[in-house]
Design brief:
69% helix, single chain, 108 residues, mainly alpha
C-alpha cells in the first residue's frame, strides 16, 4: 500500500532510556494491547492536568506555613499570639483558599 493512501499517515517517535523502555514494554505486555493501541489509549484517554498554577502558589503556602509556625511557637512558650497576628493569618489563609478554588475551577 502506498504511504499516501494510509488511514494513519502520521508517526510519533520518542527517546527513552533502557530502563524506561523496559518498564513501558512491561506495561504494554500487561495491558494485552498492541504497542500502538496502548500508546494511543494512554495519550488520548488520560485527562490533562496542568499544575503550573500551583507553582505560583507555593511561595504563598510557604509564607502561611511560616506564620503558623511562629504562632505555634508563641503558644508553646505560653505566650498568647497577638490578635493582629491571628487576623492576618486568617486573611492570608482566606486569600490562599480563594486562589486554590479559582485554580480548581479552571481545571474543571
Amino acid at each position: 500500500m502506498a504511504k499516501g493512501k494510509r488511514t494513519r499517515p502520521y508517526g510519533l517517535s520518542i527517546r527513552m532510556t533502557a530502563e524506561e523502555r523496559k518498564a513501558v514494554q512491561k506495561r504494554i505486555k500487561e495491558s494485552g494491547r498492541s504497542q500502538r493501541d496502548f500508546v494511543l489509549h494512554a495519550l488520548l484517554s488520560i485527562p490533562i492536568i496542568n499544575n503550573y498554577g500551583l507553582q505560583s502558589l507555593l511561595p504563598e503556602i510557604r509564607r502561611v506555613g511560616n506564620n503558623l509556625n511562629q504562632i505555634a511557637r508563641s503558644c508553646n512558650q505560653w505566650k498568647h499570639p497577638a490578635y493582629v497576628e491571628i487576623v492576618a493569618m486568617r486573611r492570608e489563609l482566606s486569600q490562599l483558599w480563594q486562589s486554590l478554588r479559582q485554580l480548581n475551577q479552571e481545571h474543571l
